[in-house]
Amino acid sequence: MVASQRIAVVDLGTNSTRLLVGDVADGAVEELERRTNVTRLGEGVDAAGRLSDEAIGRVVDVLADYRKAVDRRGAERIVALATSAVRDAENGPDFRDLLQQRFGIDARTIPGDEEARLTFLGATSGRPADETLVIDIGGGSTEFVIGLPGSDPDFHASTRMGSVRHSERHLRDDPPAPEQLAELRRDARAIVEEELPAEPRERVIRGIAVAGTATSLAAIDQQLEPYDPERVHGYELLLGNCESMCTMLAAVPLAERREVTGLHPDRAPTIVAGGAILIESMRAFGLDRMETSEADILHGAALDAAG
Which of 21, 72, 264, 277 is deepest in the core (most CB within 10 A)? Predict the structure, then answer.
């Protein structure tokens, strides 16, 4: 029995900033505290190439609370990961310097292959040893990772396709016009088919979807109010149900979308694009269902930090 380590992980994503504090031992993470705030760090990065002052301010406000929680829980180590938005922004290094000076948080901008490895580690911990796809739809990128649980993945692709990026790129009206949604779905399908060879796609037996798009759709499908992570984790999202939900979400204006049972209001602006990406990915892999996982890169980073 290995002594547990208390580790805090901060994920500085394109759409949300997240915190996990947990005790890690024997290849498992016991969650003590978990938080998610939609901060839209990547808002406008696709067009401007920079993190905006407003977006940075939103993240800094959230991190002030996270730092207090980490100290209160007595974490032995803090791991902070910056992904797509910070990778793509020319002022990403300045943003990381700010976090070091303000909070003593040393954020690492990790490349897509490391993001994929950690996500796969977290999502597949304890899963059956079948050829598994883990899909992580972020705000600025979507990671596709394939391998056998318990081993490092043997294929991954990090695509410049995400719920924020593709909302800004394709969905100009409220609600989006049918041709805009069709354009988005064609773009998503083309990206998957061009960047993921047929051979790894064809060998996948099961799929696991992590992050806000998948967990939101699982909550909507079950009409969860309030959100219940225990009912979301392990929930099977059927392709037909995803298509029905996305048709419903795309047909109403943003104000109505914010009121949908199971959907956090802050995710309403990006759920249509995220859902379209998930649907086209399932089709490209020939999957009629995806298991939803609450365990993702946060858990993978905690396991990795604990060795």
Answer: 277
Where do the CATH 3.30.420.40 domains begin and end in the chain?
A: 5-110
What whole-number distance in Å separates Cα of residue 110 and Cα of residue 140?
14
- 34 within 8 A of 20, measured Cβ to Cβ: yes
Quote the CATH superfamily of domain 127-293: Exopolyphosphatase. Domain 2 (3.30.420.150)
CA atoms in the 13 A half-sphere facing the CB of 86: 25
Dihedral angle sign, alpha carbons of residues 296, 298, 302, 307: positive
Which residue type sits at 266? D
The pTM assigned to this predicted structure is: 0.82
What are 178-216's pLDDT values in tens digits?
A: 999 999 999 999 999 999 999 999 999 999 999 899 999
| CATH number of this structure's domain 5-110 | 3.30.420.40
Helix (H, G, I), strand (E, B) or coil at 143: strand
Q: Cβ distance 90 to 51 under 8 Å? A: no
CA proximity to 203, closest of 288, 146, 161: 146
What is the full DSSP assignment across 72-101? Answer: HHT-SEEEEEE-HHHHH-TTHHHHHHHHHH
DSSP state of 219: H
Give residue-wise pLDDT tens across range 132-147: 999 999 888 898 999 9
